[in-house]
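Obj.: predict assembly geometry.
Materials: sequence records (below).
Method: joint structure prediction, all chains together.
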Amino acid sequence: MIPAKPIRILIFSVSAWWVLTVSSVAIAQERFLVEGILDAEVYKTNDDSFSLSRNNGDVSYLGRLQLWSAWQMTTNLQLYAMGEIETEDEYGYQSTESELTQLALRYSSNSSPFYYIEAGKILPPIAVATDRRLSTQNPLISEPNIIYAPYPLGILVAGSVGWFDYRAALVDLPSILPEYLPADPSSSYRPDLGIGVSPLTGLRFGLAYTKGPFLNKQQGEQLPEGSDWKDFDQRLWALEVEFSRGYLEFTGELVFSSYEDPFRYKRTEFTEYFLELKYTWTPRFYGAVRYQKYGYPNIAYSAYPVGQAANTILHDFEIGLGFRFTANTQLKVAYQQDRWSIDYVPDYYYPDGRSIALQLSYHFDLGSLLGRDW
Amino acid sequence: MASALSLLANGQANADPSIKTGSVHGQVTVTRKLTSQRMRFRLYPGFKPLPPPTTEEMGNDERRNVVIYLEDTPPRAEKSLPANPPQIIQQGETFIPHVLPIVEGTTVDFPNKDPIFHNVFSLSGARTFDLGRYPQGDSRAITFEQPGIVPVFCHLHSNMSAVVLVLDNPYFAVPNAEGRYSIDGIPEGTYPLIGWHERSERVEQEVTIIAGKSVELDIVIPIEDEEP
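Observations (raw structure tokens):
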């Protein structure tokens, strides 16, 4: 997801200013942090899968560096940023991409009840599994699709009162994987709301809701006459469960999503879910399994002026083992398999995918690496 | 905690009246302001975030994370372990204290005082363990049988770390708030006196213990990247 040009210019200008001026001051004040994760991945997949195939089925490689830094401006105020650079041969040739994923101000109260406010390019606020984007937090190698959104611009208020937690945000992007849409969704602000209750430590139930446009405004001309791209919205309810006991961790999400589809006369509805179990056998050795069902309206403009849409369902299963060499270095191996089904287009299908992957992850704190006293 | 540890070491060092003992004391100086409590930042905040610990809770003086101990002391006929197991408390997503020196064979408690799950694990060659995930009010314990440096982490909160320094004798101390240390009950003899900090080179000086006397020996702890 690449933001619009003026936003890119703003983001990079602020980043450059931060690196050149603020960071040197902050380092001197010992209020600056730089951490990162270095990933190396090797894949062997089948050669005709829509989602899993890499390098035409030959052995494929991926390298990724994620860096984040934060500046403690005052006791309560932090400025933080996260970016990543990734190089891979997924499509049979080497390609490298970089992205500034987060750049925001965070105000944290230090009183009770606790709350914080973030503004800028922030983490999508309604999914429970977003930390799977960090390989050191993800017990498997792939990331769950459900409510997997691009990083939006927005403002977020979140906190907790007793057993209850809440978050309320206004963000400019929908909660849907952009690659499953005919074009990247255009910016349009919508509410992202969530509440949760933790009756016991290690057990949490949550409920989340969002509603907003999900199409690209450039494609307005291809929509039915008299309609606007903002007339077609995504609505989403999500139930979240997190449970932990001893060496067992469970995360699950049940999602009811619906889309106002430009080429159909009723809303397209999906019931999606995601279940993940992780078990730690020894301090170094753990295993995990994840199953997800993900659905989306497969909108195609190719048949213009009619257009077409088909309910597309992805079933995805992944099982893996992890081994920690050190507290900061771990190796994972995982097998993944998916299966696709598409309604209304019987002669059109996506071949199923299979993948075996290895991932080596190293988490570092730049201050410790350099022996600096930040 | 620093004072308590000094007393702990002093009190248990040598109870045999037939052995002539002396003591060593001095001032610990850290040549540059060290802090292992770097800024903390949670990139993916949970929905029950905790306020950061206060300066008092974190322990602003890095001298608290220095350990002074002796090596090559005579073997002791019997182990004298602390009556109450020392603790490393998990509070405010922080291990308190950050550094805990113990004598081999000591059991350490890890109580969780946060309203969230914590995990305690180490991959150290001296002691590999994983106490699992446990909630507020719960505590798990582990015994450290082998001398060595045992870095301790939490699977759930990567910013949490502590160090258990397992020693083969009870002649150790942690400086107090003024940087003073004192080790009593040491058998007569000449020993290496070590100043240890997790982010410093090991500092070694020789000390000769004379029965009934207290030797003064100051220790300076430099850090690795300090250029002359």
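Conclusions so far: The helical segments of chain A are 5-28, 366-369.
To do: check interface contacts against the pulldown list.
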